Amino acid sequence: MLVQLAMLMPNWMDPEFLLNWLGDWALWGTLAVIFIECGVLFPILPGDSLLFAVGLFIARGTIDVPLWLACVLLTVAAFLGNVSGYYIGRVLGTSLFTNPNARFLKPKYIEQTHEFFERYGPRALVLARFVPIVRTFITIVAGAGKMDPKKFFLWTGIGAIIWAPGITLLGHALGNVEFVHAHLESALILLVLVSLIPMVVEFALAKRRKAAALPAVD
Questions:
Q1: Which keywords annotate this record (predicted)?
Q2: How many domains are there within the chain?
């Protein structure tokens, strides 16, 4: 099943294809992708799986860059992408999201992200890192809502530090496991599914807290 899903992905969504195509520019291309996906209004990019693949390629020696340097640069790219999205939101608000038939800037994305932000507050900036599409638009919503910049920088910085190095280090740790390398496409799709676990857990906890609060309301 995972292999069938992998075959349906366009080449530019396939991290292994993308990194091989970029060649010596693989890390720099990854930095650009992470920056764009984290706040520049283009949500359909292979963020999680690309970070994992970069770690794996570094472990294999295909990307000849020190692991620590890659982690630092990827964290900076993720942080700056979010900062860009925040200021786009402050300047333009949600005025770009008016066409329900738009390919990427759909009003429903902003509505879903706004609900996400309302439910989890500032920590949404950390949780959203692990949710495709939401991680792009959460910064727009934060900017449009005039969230305090210091609070935004703090929470989005925490998210960048957990997300970018965390997934890259996981890829590096598994990079020399032959089974993972031989089934990379399936492993990358599985990673995307696993990355949603924090959100599922948080959603379950939120429902439990809401249910526990009901008697007090009565």
A1: Cell membrane, Membrane, Transmembrane, Transmembrane helix
A2: 1
